[in-house]
Amino acid sequence: MGAAALVLVKAPAKLYTPAQQAPAHLLLGGGKVLGLLGDAQASLIDQLGPRVVQVLDASSCCVCPGLVDMHVHITGGGGEAGPSSRCPESQLSTFLNAGITTAVGVLGTDSVSRCQENLITKCKALNKDGITCYHWCGSYRIPAATITGSIQRELCLIESCIGVGEVAVSDHRSAVPIAHELARIASEARVGGMLSGCCGLCYCHMGDGSAGLDPLRQALAMSELPITQFLPTHAARNDHLWSDGLQWLREGGNLDITADDRAQHALQDVHDNKPSLLESCTISSDAFGSLPVFDQHGRLVGYDVGDPQSLLQLLQTMVLGIPRWPLEKVLPLLTSQPAARLCLHQKGQIAAGRDADLLLLDSNTLELQYVIANGVLSTPAHSLCACTCIARSPVAAEVSNGFLAKFSTTRSSNGLLPALTVQLHSWPRAAQEEEDKEHARQRSLVPAAPRSLLAACVQGRSPMLTQQAGLATLAEQADHTDRINPSPKGDLQGRNAYDSSTAAASYTVLALGHAGLAIPAVFMPELGAQVFFGSSVISPVHAQLFYLLGTGLLGGGVASWVLRDINHWWLAAVSAWLFCHGVSASALQPCQAGR
To answer: pTM (2 decimals)?
Structure first.
């Protein structure tokens, strides 16, 4: 069948969603959090075996959401000291090593050698590799750089675009935008966000200039825009700007703070001033961008590169240092609050139906032990992390639908993690080739046993659905029957992916039914399985029959109709399982997907 369709994060020492919760087991599948389980449910899931579920022992770990970083120069930043000072672009392994599962790419000073085409292409690459990536259109300069010719069109037509930024304000590298220009840019982004369903914010790079946040206030004064339409970043860059930033928070605005050596002091100031204002703050890394230092005359006197590790390092410093912050106070700044600010409703929290983006941290040192990131992943050949790909397709690196990476905390003398090996659950190629040779002959020899067995199941006569041994038998039959049925795609790779997806569909729901869990509607958005299983292996009609059979609203006559098509016998199998376990249709609550 390939690798397990489910992941059980078992017995975490502590659970933060990001609020601290009572310890619970986590069931993951199809890139989603399927539920928080009690001991009895987890025990049942665990008994299904490695063919169905991969168990991850988290007894020494804190489990929390993956980090959401809204400011990453994914194509590299820099260039203020000439072409040789251009920073290198980001790599997947550096995100994973830093615990970042969602990133937003941005351009900075250089919008000449770094352009929107580069940014969007890199964003697509990171999404395909396994993390979630969006981008801001534009750069320091105005008019904002776009591909489509306008900010509104960019937000509406390019899925990964969520707003405009980083527009430079109060900085000698900016285009010195006047209030009217800022208001127009922010208004266009706002309307584009309304039309496209994204946040549509104007993300503003704040420089060292003495004007501080006043240009933004002037833009607000001449428009009907709310103060939250602007999101200033680098808000704690210097004392003058930070003092202005505190006032901005009191006025109802939001701030983004760079995770540098000033961040903790700035957050402490907010807490001492008014703790509730922390809800208006987020933290970002400025990773892979240049960190230039200029003197009072604007001359470059220092240069560094942003580190994605800065988010996790700040978290560790604040929680383990003095003064000691509770983990549940710091986590929202890096997870749920940036996700909410960006209208990424599936990110930043651990809850049923949300994306399965999780970090497992050592409960004592907060060192990163595991990261789980949803989505398709292609693991690089040489990485800073050791990876195990939880794939439901035989072509693991191409069509996997879940990712689990384990990190070594051992560092070499130069401070870098050593190169590690990559392990993939690959399809048994030799066995598959042998099966392919027999494929035509086997198609005509489909055994009748599954058909009669399933008919008995639907009529409620078979005891196998209540026994672990029976489940294993059904798994063996599915493994056999899936492989001898043709793929609708007509090619070996497509057939393997199709067969693996149908098997994953069967076993996932069998496992959930076995544990007595409600089946969330996120499995079948719009009566289809395209999102959950990654390919259209269940048509809307069959999905509807799936649920009606499962709830007992349709009888054996419809089941017999389904059974006439041997290609869909596994559909009847799962329907029979749900039917015998009485899963109620009222338990199928809709799950609204975020952008």
So the answer is: 0.69
